[in-house]
Specification:
Strand content: under 5%
Shape: globular
Largest sheet: 2 strands, antiparallel
Structural class: mainly alpha
Bound molecules: heme C
């Protein structure tokens, strides 16, 4: 390194020494990046290698309030709140590499990805945290456990008491039967009579952020204890098991994708009947 630097400066002379130094410091930065792995065909390979972060056990009761607070922090929302309560807590306790994550990007999941109402951001934040440590073979069952639990659970459960930032007191609950932000929020609003743009609804989602963080940490801790042997407790939903006997891989009508409960969308309820005619 030193030799080539001296040779370079010598060859270029004093006039361009400044420029030569600048380009040299550029190449020395490149020298600090990890070697490119063969698996990437000579292209950039991620820092530290794939799935190289070590998962750490956390205390759900400590992280749930962090998740709730993260939801309100700058309005970053549910995905940020859950992810920050998990990876951010590891960063707080253990520093690197957890503290190198660009946490604010998790704002993307707010409102089911930029207010599109797709997957509940709290769930997406948790899934992203799982995937910081485990490849899909191990992380997918963790996601399934969390998502199935979410479909069946009456939310919200968590109550911040006097620390409430949107609305103080008890909130009514509903079971969404769906992992979608849209279905989850709308079902709650329909069941409780609260507006989707009310403070109570924001508070509800803040509390769900804490609930999902706590459940995700329970799953993560169990996974760390059991290792590769870990299996979720919740069975495939009845509808998914039933409908995919024909609409599953290799079956007579293999044309559906996903593991979501089929019921809210295909049960012919009044909510999903034709609203374009004779309505309201
Ligand atoms: C015994 C086999 C079988 C089961 C079980 C089954 N389906 Fe089907 N389903 C079919 C077949 C065959 C079709 C027609 C497929 C085609 O057109 O290619 C179909 C069509 C559909 C369609 C397309 C619209 C329509 O009505 O033609 C939907 C939606 C659907 N099924 C949903 C479901 C859901 C949800 C369940 C579970 C509650 C389910 N199916 C269970 C065999 C089944
Ligand atoms: C979030 C709502 C939702 C969920 C959950 C859902 N579906 Fe669907 N599904 C739809 C919509 C919307 C379509 C497109 C309907 C259309 O073409 O008008 C569709 C299409 C289908 C089709 C193709 C037939 C068609 O008419 O396009 C099948 C088969 C199907 N779904 C089966 C299932 C099964 C089985 C499950 C559960 C494993 C399931 N769906 C879960 C909303 C849903």
């Amino acid at each position: 390194m030193d030799l080539s630097r001296r040779a370079m400066l010598g060859a270029m002379g004093g006039l361009v020494a400044g420029g030569a130094l600048a380009s040299f410091s550029g190449s020395s930065m490149a020298a600090n990046t990890p070697a490119m792995s063969e698996g990437r065909n000579g292209h950039f390979a991620q820092m530290g290698g794939e799935f190289s972060w070590e998962p750490k056990k956390l205390v759900a009761a400590e992280c749930a309030p962090v998740a709730y607070d993260g939801y309100w922090y700058k309005g970053f929302g549910c995905g940020y709140g859950v992810f920050y309560s998990i990876i951010g807590t590891m960063a707080e306790k253990y520093g690197a590499p957890y503290n190198t994550y660009p946490f604010s990007m998790m704002e993307m999941f707010k409102g089911g990805v930029s207010d599109w109402g797709t997957v509940c951001g709290a769930l997406a934040g948790a899934a992203a945290a799982f995937f910081c440590f485990f490849p899909r073979k191990e992380a997918n069952p963790m996601v399934s456990e969390l998502f199935r639990w979410y479909e069946k659970t009456a939310f919200p459960i968590y109550n911040p008491g006097d620390a409430a930032q949107g609305f103080k007191g008890e909130l009514p609950t509903s079971v969404s039967r769906s992992v979608l932000c849209h279905v989850s929020v709308s079902t709650w609003c329909h069941t409780t009579g609260k507006a989707a743009n009310s403070k109570e609804r924001s508070e509800r989602c803040g509390r769900i952020t804490a609930d999902v963080s706590a459940k995700a940490i329970e799953i993560l801790n169990a996974k760390i204890d059991a290792g590769k042997e870990w299996k979720g407790a919740l069975a495939k939903q009845e509808s998914v098991a039933g409908c995919t006997t024909c609409h599953g891989k290799g079956q007579m009508s293999d044309m559906q994708k996903g593991n979501m409960d089929c019921t809210p969308c295909h049960s012919g309820s009044s909510a999903v009947a034709d609203k374009f005619h004779n309505h309201p």
